[in-house]
C-alpha cells in the first residue's frame, strides 16, 4: 500500500512501512531575477569610459564647433555657399585634429600604465600572482587607435548635423534658425545618449551639453558680427 503526504516543500511517501523523502529542486524566480539584477548592478560601467568618452566628446565637439563656425560666417555673409564651405572645412580639420589629439593623449596614458605594470611585475610574482591575472590587466589597457578612430568618426557625425541642415535652405534667416534648432536637438540627443550608456543622470547631462552649445554658438555669432562691423 502506498500513501503520500506533503510536508513543507518535500513530498513524503510511505511505501511498505518505509519512509521515503523525495526532494524536489525548486527554482525561485524571484531569486533568479535578483541575481540578474545584481549582475547588472555589479557591471563596471567604467569599462566603457575609454570609447564612450572619445565618442561623446567627439560628437559634441564636431557639432558645436561646426555649428558655431557656420553661425559665425552666417553673421557676416548671407551666401549659403560660404556657410557650407566653412562647415565642410571645419568638419575635415576638426576630425583630423581630434584623431591626432586623442591618439597622442591615449598613447601617453598607455605608456604610463605599461611602465607601472613593469614596475609591479616583480612584486606581483613574489606575491604568487598568476599569469592570467597579469594578462587580464594588460587586456584592460587603453587602445590609442580605438580612441582615435572613435573620436574621428564621432566628430564627423556630429559636424554633419549642422552641415546637412543648412545645405538645402536658401533663405538667410531661416537657415540660421534651422542650424541653431537642429544643433540644439542633436545636442540633447548626444547628451542623453552619453548619459544613458554611462548610467549617469540624463536630464543634467542634456542640460549641461545644451547650454554649452548655445553659449558657443552665441559667442561666435556675436563676436564675429562685432568684428565685422568694426572693420
TrEMBL record:
Predominant subcellular localization, coarse grouping: membrane
Keywords, ordered alphabetically: Ion transport, Iron, Iron transport, Membrane, Transmembrane, Transmembrane helix, Transport, Vacuole
Transmembrane regions: 80-100, 145-164, 176-196, 202-223
A GO molecular-function annotation: iron ion transmembrane transporter activity
Catalyzed reactions per annotation: Fe(2+)(in) = Fe(2+)(out)
Region (Disordered): 121-141
Entry keyword Membrane: yes
GO biological process entries: intracellular manganese ion homeostasis
One Gene Ontology cellular component annotation held by this UniProt entry: vacuolar membrane
Protein's cellular compartments: Vacuole membrane
Pfam families linked: VIT1 (PF01988)
Composition-biased stretches (Basic and acidic residues): 121-130
Family from the record: Belongs to the CCC1 family.
Function as written in the Swiss-Prot or TrEMBL entry: Vacuolar Fe(2+) uptake transporter.
Listed name of the protein: Vacuolar iron transporter
Organism the protein comes from: Nelumbo nucifera
Amino acid at each position: 500500500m502506498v500513501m503520500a503526504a506533503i510536508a513543507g516543500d518535500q513530498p513524503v511517501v510511505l511505501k511498505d512501512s518505509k519512509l521515503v523523502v523525495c526532494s524536489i529542486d525548486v527554482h525561485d524566480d524571484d531569486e533568479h531575477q535578483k541575481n540578474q539584477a545584481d549582475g547588472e548592478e555589479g557591471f563596471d560601467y567604467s569599462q566603457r569610459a575609454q570609447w564612450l568618452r572619445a565618442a561623446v566628446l567627439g560628437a559634441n565637439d564636431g557639432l558645436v564647433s561646426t555649428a558655431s563656425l557656420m553661425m559665425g560666417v552666417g553673421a557676416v555673409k548671407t551666401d549659403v555657399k560660404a556657410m557650407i564651405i566653412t562647415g565642410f572645412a571645419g568638419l575635415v580639420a576638426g576630425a583630423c585634429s581630434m584623431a591626432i589629439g586623442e591618439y597622442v593623449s591615449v598613447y601617453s596614458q598607455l605608456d604610463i600604465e605599461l611602465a607601472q605594470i613593469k614596475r609591479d611585475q616583480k612584486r606581483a610574482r613574489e606575491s604568487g600572482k598568476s599569469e592570467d591575472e597579469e594578462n587580464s590587466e594588460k587586456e584592460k589597457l587603453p587602445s590609442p587607435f580605438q580612441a582615435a578612430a572613435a573620436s574621428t568618426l564621432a566628430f564627423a557625425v556630429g559636424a554633419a548635423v549642422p552641415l546637412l541642415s543648412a545645405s538645402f535652405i536658401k533663405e538667410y534667416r531661416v537657415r540660421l534658425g534651422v542650424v541653431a534648432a537642429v544643433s540644439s536637438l542633436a545636442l540633447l540627443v548626444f547628451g542623453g545618449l552619453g548619459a544613458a550608456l554611462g548610467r549617469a543622470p540624463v536630464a543634467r547631462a542634456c542640460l549641461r551639453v545644451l547650454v554649452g552649445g548655445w553659449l558657443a554658438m552665441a559667442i561666435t555669432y556675436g563676436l564675429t558680427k562685432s568684428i565685422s562691423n568694426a572693420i
